[in-house]
TrEMBL record:
<dbReference type="InterPro" id="IPR015943">
    <property type="entry name" value="WD40/YVTN_repeat-like_dom_sf"/>
</dbReference>
<keyword id="KW-0732">Signal</keyword>
<dbReference type="InterPro" id="IPR002372">
    <property type="entry name" value="PQQ_rpt_dom"/>
</dbReference>
<dbReference type="InterPro" id="IPR011047">
    <property type="entry name" value="Quinoprotein_ADH-like_sf"/>
</dbReference>
<protein>
    <submittedName>
        <fullName>Outer membrane biogenesis protein BamB</fullName>
    </submittedName>
</protein>
<feature type="domain" description="Pyrrolo-quinoline quinone repeat">
    <location>
        <begin position="116"/>
        <end position="364"/>
    </location>
</feature>
<dbReference type="Pfam" id="PF13360">
    <property type="entry name" value="PQQ_2"/>
</dbReference>
<feature type="signal peptide">
    <location>
        <begin position="1"/>
        <end position="26"/>
    </location>
</feature>
Length: 442
């Protein structure tokens, strides 16, 4: 009887959670690339058309710089930014007085930056709280198209995890109270291009991959305390691909994409389950899982895409079980969109779109030039049978999710967009260089 009563209590608690949070869980964008890490929201239904004068629910300026994706949980929107305070270290020359040290002429910062977490009301855009996670001078510069707040936060509905790279990892409750913080050391990114891989949360564990010109690592933290559960060194150079965590073949696999190899780690032990080479340099697109395969791609110094089995062990590089490969038109910065068997991606950072059958790797359409877009840094998203592709020039094209490249609308805003969109409910969130837009049909 005692065990039966305990079981009934657990069932009641579960039912309460389902009724209390079921709709809200489905209605959120809790991490980079959305609820399923594919770029798709299953229940969102954002507008098809908008402009500066149409279907803008609110628009607020975000001080500082950041290209991380907004994260939505229930009635709150979370966003990261880094603000140059102007407080200088006189021992470091001004950037304009420093000699050229790399190809991109990226200089060492000499001013303190405030690394800030901002929470906004989802319905009004009003700021609810902000926390200064850290104030420090960045130890390295960043590419002009990058910044010091480019990693997207993530949440489990109770805690918010904010990763500022070399400035630290910070955990808050959703009302802004700091729960813990960790200094995980400084990365040494080749050519000082800046950091950008986002943390991934799974089953109470926080996964952080740091591939750079120093000693690259993968580290897993206890999400409640921030304590390290395990850490492994990686033989990789610069890469920015956010990992994908998936339960498959009896284990929870952490899949990391990089130039040396795509690797699957056991989330519990940190041991490598399988690995597969074949990507090109500077890997940025994150993996997407389709059934028994993970699709990984890259688009710098060549093009590569491949569908790798999740069922194997060891080195699968030469395996005949690799489902398909492609060597044309893959993205450099944006991640692909996997939407019910259709895989959408652009070539390099250009507005040239290809759609594949994710099961076979065969081209459905493309390469198709999207003439009204400029270069693309933001990753595409999908909802309600539509695909949203955002250009750096402020233009967003909305396509029908279909075997044809059918444009439904072309929308323009007075902004530059490098951050990827977020979808929740009837809303689309677009973060520009200056403003965050909440787009909803009036």
């Amino acid at each position: 009887m005692k065990n039966e009563s305990a079981l009934n209590a657990c069932l009641l608690l579960l039912l309460f959670q389902v009724f209390a949070f079921g709709d809200s869980f489905a209605d959120n964008w809790p991490q980079w690339r959305g609820p399923d890490a594919t770029g798709v929201s299953r229940i969102a239904n954002p507008p098809v058309e908008w402009s500066e004068d149409k279907n803008i629910k609110w628009k607020v300026a975000i001080e500082g710089r950041g290209t991380s994706t907004p994260i939505i949980w229930n009635e709150k929107v979370f966003i990261l930014t880094a603000i140059n305070t102007g407080v200088k270290d006189p021992s470091i020359p001004d950037p304009e007085d420093q000699p050229k040290t790399n190809f991109f002429d990226i200089k060492l910062p000499n001013a303190q930056h405030a690394f800030i977490v901002v929470c906004l009301d989802r319905n009004t855009g009003k700021e609810l709280w902000r926390q200064v996670a850290a104030t420090k001078i960045p130890h390295e510069g960043a590419h002009n198209d990058n910044d010091f707040a480019s990693s997207s936060p993530t949440t489990d509905g109770q805690r918010l995890y904010c990763w500022f790279g070399s400035a630290g990892m910070f955990c808050y409750d959703l009302d802004g109270r700091k729960l813990w913080e960790r200094d995980l050391g400084e990365a040494k990114v080749g050519s000082s291009l800046g950091e950008g891989c986002s943390p991934v949360l799974h089953d109470g564990k926080l996964v952080i991959v740091r591939d750079h010109a120093g000693q690259s690592t993968i580290e897993v933290l206890d999400a409640t305390t921030g304590n390290t559960l395990w850490k492994r060194e990686r033989d990789e150079g610069n890469a920015w691909a956010t990992p994908r965590v998936i339960q498959h073949s009896g284990k929870t696999q952490v899949i990391t994409a990089a130039s040396g190899a795509v690797r699957s780690y056991d989330l519990e032990s940190g041991e490598i389950i399988w690995q597969c080479s074949g990507l090109t340099g500077n890997v940025i697109p994150c993996p997407v899982v389709d059934g028994d395969y993970v699709i990984c791609m890259s688009g710098y110094e060549g093009y590569a895409a491949m569908a790798i089995p999740l069922t194997e062990t060891g080195d699968t590089s030469a395996s005949e079980k690799i489902l398909w490969k492609q060597d044309r038109g893959t993205p450099y910065i944006p991640s692909p969109l996997l939407y019910d068997g259709l895989l959408y991606y652009n070539q390099s950072n250009q507005s040239i779109l290809t759609c594949l059958d994710s099961k076979t790797g065969e081209v459905v359409f493309g390469p198709e030039r999207l003439g009204q877009l400029s270069n693309i840094y933001a990753s595409p998203v999908g909802a309600a049978g539509r695909v949203y592709i955002v250009g750096r020039n402020g233009t967003t094209m909305v396509l029908d999710r279909s075997p044809q490249c059918k444009v439904l609308a072309t929308n323009e805003l007075d902004e530059r967009f490098d951050a990827s969109p977020a979808l929740a409910g009837k809303q689309l969130f677009l973060r520009g260089a200056t403003y965050l837009y909440c787009i909803e049909k009036n």
